[in-house]
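Team,

Forwarding the record for the chain on the shared tracking sheet. I've put the sequence and predicted structure together so nobody has to dig through attachments.
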Amino acid sequence: MMSKNRQYDNDYKVQAVKLAKEIDTEKAAKELNVPSNTLYGWVKKAKVGGLDIGLGERNPEDALNIAEENQQLKKKIKAMEKEIKREIIDEIIRIGIQMDQKGMVNAFEGNLSIKDRETGL
């Protein structure tokens, strides 16, 4: 007999995950006549936030882990922003030095002087 892939709506998955948390995943799978691997997948998805089972369903440990991760990511972003600013400043300085070494800065200033004399400014 060929197995038929069943489609489950989101509400059914949410209720199944809640039941699995209450009575154990294996028992819930048998009671609901859902393959246990399928239900384990939904439970895992709910743990990582891929299946929204309601904010009250997350345990305090998960909330703490999310808050810690959020704090770490904010610190990484600040560090990366500082590094990017430093790299931009270094590049501006490098370009300025190159222009000065090639005489481009003086030539530019000289061109302004010549242009100013031509236009009478």
